[in-house]
Amino acid sequence: MLFDAGPRYSLESDAGNRVLLPLLKALDVQLDTVVLSHRDTDHVGGAAAVLMMQPQAALLSSIDPQHALQQLRQSSRCEAGQRWVWDGVDFEVLQPPAGAYEQQPALKANALSCVLRISNGRQTALLTGDIEAPQELQMLGDPYTASKLRADVLLVPHHGSKTSSTPEFLQAVQPRHALVQAGYRNRYGHPAAPVLDRYVALGTHLVLSPRCGAARWRSAEPQNVACMREDERHYWAHDVP
């Protein structure tokens, strides 16, 4: 499964062609499903390239029916309550509720982000897209969903933006590791320092993509996150301040 497909850099270049397809080929992986959290281009920019080269993969997303990707692969909507099991691993969609789609186009794309919980019964990962405070509080307000938020690994909501990672949400998740996907010195200022401070106060291990590069976490070794910039370091690489 692939969750989100990275950005489009130009008309000729995107994360699908430059990063994901070479990785999938190197790993000899055939995808069963591509999950796109929402329609923003930094999350779906590489999806077309992946879908064209992985014709067997189903598409699960919150993109609208008129989105160009629908021409490549008809998407099923991600809705809270969807659940499936692969090889003993449980996958469950926690957000958005089905009724949220009826509020388009008033809702921002971020508010429709698919939140996916993945658990083998011992370790859990929570993938959040770009949810913001209202969606975090909405999940906390539902007793069942709130009971499913605890996770070993959290994909930090909205790249560490000030709009997200509320104290109440972090108290419910209590992540051991928090992965922050954000470009080096990006124009948005992600991740925000006050947000990082909240994770540090919880004792969470922060993993920032500009410093780590590709991060690899395995449920068999839940205490460790491997960083490719460190583990496969080229002699010309330097530390990111």
Question: Could you walk me through the main structural features you see in this protein, from its secondary elements to its overall organization?
Answer:
- The chain has a seven-stranded mixed sheet with strand order 5-6-7-8-9-10-11. A four-stranded parallel sheet has the order 1-2-3-4, with no helix packed on it.
- The chain has nine helices and 13 strands.
- It is globular.
- The protein has helices at residues 15-27, 41-44, 47-53, 133-141, 143-147, 167-173, 193-202, 209-212, 228-231; strands at residues 2-3, 33-36, 58-61, 75-77, 83-86, 89-95, 115-119, 124-127, 153-155, 177-180, 205-208, 215-217, 225-227.
- Helix 1 (15-27) packs parallel to helix 3.
- The longest helix is centred in the first third of the chain and has 13 residues, at 15-27.
- The two termini are 33 Å apart.
- The protein is of the alpha/beta class and 241 residues long.
- Helix 7 links the parallel strand 10 (177-180) and strand 11.
- It folds into two domains: 1-77, no CATH class; 78-241, 4-Layer Sandwich (Metallo-beta-lactamase, Chain A), CATH 3.60.15.
- 34% of the residues are buried.
